[in-house]
Design goal:
837 residues, alpha+beta, 32 strands, 33% helix
Length: 837
Amino acid sequence: MSASQSSRLSGDGVFDLTRTAVVMADRAGVAQGWTAGAERLLGYPVSEAVGRPLADLFAGVGAGSEQDRRWESRLASADGWSGLEAVRHKDGHRLDLEFRVLPVLDAPSGFSRLVLAAEMARTPWSGASRSFLEGILGMSPIGVAMVNAELQFVWLNDALEQMGGTSREQRLGKRLAEVQPGLAVEAIEAEMRRVLRTGTPSVGYEYLGRPQSDPEREHAYSTSFFRLEDEAGQVLGICYMVLDVTEGYRARQRMALLNKAGERIGSSLDVWQTAQELADAAVPDLADFVTVDLLDALLSGEEAADPLDAADLLTMRRAGAQSVHEGCPEAVVAIGEPAAYPPSAPVVASLTKGDSTLLRTLDTADGDPSDEDPVRAARLRALGFHSLMVVPLRARGVFLGAATFARWQATGPFQPDDLVLAEEFVARAAISIDNARRYTREHTAALTLQHSLLPRALPEQCAVEAAYRYLPADSLSGVGGDWFDVIPLSGARVALVVGDVVGHGMHAAATMGRLRAAVQALADLDLSPEEVLAHLDDMLNRVAHDANADDGVIGATCLYAVYDPVSCRCTLARAGHPAPLLVGPDGAGKLLDLPTGPPLGLGGMPFESVELPLREGSLLALYTNGLLLGKALDLDGGITRLRQALADPKAPLEDLCETVIGGLPGGRPVDDVALLLARTRALPRTRLATWEIPADPSAVGEARRTAARLLREWGREELGFSTELIVSELVTNAIRHASGPIGLRMIRAGELICEVSDASSTSPHLRHARTTDEGGRGLFLIARYAQRWGTRYTAQGKIIWAELPLGPTTGTAPPADLGTLLEDLDDQADFTGAEGR
């Protein structure tokens, strides 16, 4: 037989490591099989060894004819032989070997003895002699067996006998399928036949099975198969070695499952999703059916009592479920529904005691004794329910709920190490659920604060048609500080505001609220856009100076625009904010070229505004950068999408908002999105009237009468008294205390607006007149009859304005002696002026 033939058993790694020779011999003592271990131990290659007498191969020191007789006696013994022998290596040096000659079941091939030889070694800690061969064949956990070409057992060692749970007498002459039906015998024998057919060893072949020695538990085995041949190349059979690697396999399996669970559990800060991820990760590798029930207190953002009692568990709710059966038919309770358990249920016992429960076997012949629901019990019987584990979900000392693991299929019952693995799963999920619970509570509070600070509805005004959308960021990003506003101003004008505070969370939402309140207050002062931004910048600097270091960076961007429907002009200024998109009535869109300006909070940097004419029907889009960037962080792409979405100039604004938001890539954005669309209107000239007033007290009466005639033309005679009174007071004030030119303008928009302009920058103010004073009550009269009034400054001076509601009536009937009162006011204007009133 050549050295290339497979009788070399090149894969017998275990024996090679101990320099062990495995030799097959016939009854005459002639070697029929020679392993690589034998070659390394004695130096003879297989080509020289096969066919030679054992007495030659194991020649003793000073050997002769007596050596031949000794080997004949050893091989003839029916019980085999073991002992020590000093032999010569092929190169002549001495080897001290321990031999074991084992009888092999007679077979047609004729071989009948297995000779094992191992070199003796000294243990360094004791100096005692110890045979590695004895360890392999006796105390070693490695099982060794020989099967013939028909895969029938002809020899096996004690370790394999104990490992399989069947005796040597039951195995000899039989195939593996006849003695170990709990193993994957078809696959194992197929692997043996492959080795017999090809001669290629199979090293480290792994399989799972339930041996007769432990039929309730699945074991893992690592087996190596080697083909044996005689000198003529005839196949003698298979030698195989088996190692029970159950513990290592389970450890690897647990580690793989834990890694898998780590990847799948806690992917979001959502309590419900995390609970479902726990159930998904455990099926089917650990259990056949898993449910996760959470306490209602947890889902409402509260914390459960510690310790729990049975009453606390009446409000549990199903948060996750998974099964090996499609559609989860075992689940009596749907996701989101209350999960009620009787006091005797294992779930209640585990939560009240705070410990896990392992029920390896359950008798479901009459239903689960712990389940008082007959429908549930019937389902469990039909599915073959036989083993259960319950693990409480607890994190940071807080009970969150419980996870139940069950097995229905023809798998073994849960073992203690399965419970350890389930507890690892639940521990990871519990931390993630608690993090989600805490985040949800804080996120909800921040959203509540944010929503309370944002406008609930846009105010009524006639300057623009407006619509908006606000889209919070995904839950991982947190609540942002984006805001928008539409603020009616005097003279039928409107302020459009969009801003974005740096960062996320409660602090950003609170800062946004402060900025929005400040913008509204500054807008009431009728300041120009650049002045509004300068005041906001100063405010943020003061806030940053007073803030805690833990509050983080305080900064914001803002765009402030004022549109006048009378002149159809818009004044805009921005502080580090994206430029607005203007879409003309023809559908052409462009970004407005505005001075950028520094973000708010840097301090000391000037802002600049730009005034632009806007045609009626123009669409102005103000937004925050979350609309442009999205998850793709593509600024140019965001501008293109926005321009395309707003290309239809006649589409309803609500539809345009939906188109813009619906076109965002990747679903919910990573940053808050605020969008404000404003379509400009123009005030008809028929609703506007202006006059120049001479700087003469006698002009007061003419101004009053002119206003009355205009009201009759507009069909608003019911406002005559209030309007004439206000016009008289404002014109008298301008004549008495200001310088010309003096102008009177009346506007019929959403309200009736009376404006008197002059070239003075001095602003009137309310006075508290004494009862003996002849004047000092004029502004009180204006405040009494006007809905709003105030002053705004222009490049030429100032404008004092007052608004009256355009309702059916003003709510105040004119006095009976109206004519006499107005004439008296005209007369007093000649002497005292309006400052005194």
